[in-house]
Structure formats: C-alpha cells, structure tokens
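chain below, 307 aa
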Amino acid sequence: MKPDISTGLVDLVTADKSSVKRLEKSADRTHAWLRDTIDSRKRPVGDALPPLFASVPPLEPEQQSFYLSDLQGDFEPDLSGLCVYSPQTVAALPTALGHLPRLCLSAPETPHTLLTAISLGIDLITTPFVTETSEHGIALSFEFPPPKNADHQALGFDLWSGAHATDLSPLTPACSCYTCTRHHRAYVHHLLQAKEMLAWTLLQIHNHSVIDTFFRKIRESMARGTFEDDVNAFSRVYEAEMPEKTGQGPRVRGYQMKSIGGGEPKRNPKVYGRLDDQVQKLAEAQSGVATLGGDAEELEENGFAKG
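prediction:
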C-alpha cells in the first residue's frame, strides 16, 4: 500500500479506572512491540520501508520511564517520529527526542482543540470532525487568523435550515473550492432535502478546503511569529462548539459503523418497513378469498372450487 509512515503497535488502556499493574503492562507491551518491529525491519526486504513512528501510550512518565529511556537511547536511531494519543503526552517526552516530528491520533472536536494541540507541540494530527460535520450538513466557515473587528462568529452553519432555500451565495464568500465556485447554498440545501449523495460530497469538498487553508494559515502565522496572538484572537471571535446538528446523515451500511454492544440504536431510521402492511393487503386482494372461515355460499361467490 506504500504508506507515508508506519507506527508501532500500542496497548491503549480505555477503561476509566485501571490498576497500576495494568498501566505498567501497557507500557511493557508497547515497548516489546516496538523492539520487535525494529528488529524485523533490519531483515532484507524488496522495497524500502516507510518511516517508523514510535507509539507512546498516554501514561504518566513514571509508569513508562523504562520505555522512554530506551526511546532516547537504543531506539532513537531507527525512528523517524513519535506517535501519541493525547496532546498532553508531549510534555512527558524526553528532551533528547525533541527533534522528532510528533503525530497525534486523538479525536479533536473543534478547531480550538487543534490549536491547543499545536500549541503543545503536535506536528501532525487527525481531523475526524471534518467528515462528521459534512455528514450532518454543516458547512465550515472559520478562518485563521480571524477577520479583524469580528465578534461572536459561528464555526459553521447548517445547510439543512430553510433559511438557505433561496440563498444564491456561495457557502463562504472567500472560498475558492470547487463547491463554492460552481454551486450555491440553495442548491446544496435542495440536495440535502432530496437526500442526494452529491450534497455530502460537495460539503466534504468545501470542508476539506477550509481545513487545508486553516493549516496553511497556521504555518504562515508561525513564520511571522504571531501564532500565539492569532490563537488568542481566534478564541475570542469564534464560538467554542460546532453548530447543533439537525439533519440526517447519508445512508450508511452496517460495515461502516463500529459495533458498540447490544441494544445500540440504528444510525438512520428504518425506511422500507412501512410497506410491509401494504404487501400483505395486496396479497389478500389478489387471492380473491380473504379467509376460509366463511360458509359454502360465501366460498362459491368467491369462485372457490370452480373448474
């Protein structure tokens, strides 16, 4: 598949409360898996191997002190980066590993969370909220740095709302993405109401463009040396949470959703069940006999036993 990077396996502790022994086992397993991975990469292979990022579980430094010591000692020459699962883990990383890029596989919910992670030293981070907002019919509209003299701005807007039914403006005025340069809000609103898959495709194109511009402007802000001030301005101007989700997402299949456990609700309501009673009525009408419980005269009237 030729990935850009590979990461070592990690034993993540997902329980809210865990024993000290369980936490120590998490660090020991992650340490052993990274050691085995590095050893296996030293064997001859046909193609060049992707850069390796060492996974660091979100534990206290004293719970994985041996692992962190080996990261900066024995393992460092074979590493191209570090993979963390919480931005706060960066503070516990050894100073000697500060030159390695840091990938964070967390689930930030807003651009505010992204900016906090970057401020803590994260270089690469996942952005699952982009797809989530697209699926709920929300178009992102934030900018970094924020517009001057702006106040109380929403991070996006809900295109399911009837307020956009006749709005012929682009999703955001300054956006140059495919969606904004070729379509308008009323069109995307119509597609959502008709449950056309094109609606979510156009929203995803736009939202990815917004987040791409967001990260590009962050890099420019860092180059200017104004990143901290721009972050503070962003926090003052934009709301802390995403807009409330009111619409229905695209049709999903079972294999697209992670199973949580028994009794979990379906992602979307059942569509075709309401036709079941009509099928039964049609079958009864075509049979010519609603029931065999009548007397002989009723059976004859319905054509029963005619040759």
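The chain has two domains: 1-106, 129-251. The mean pLDDT is 87.
thats it, cya
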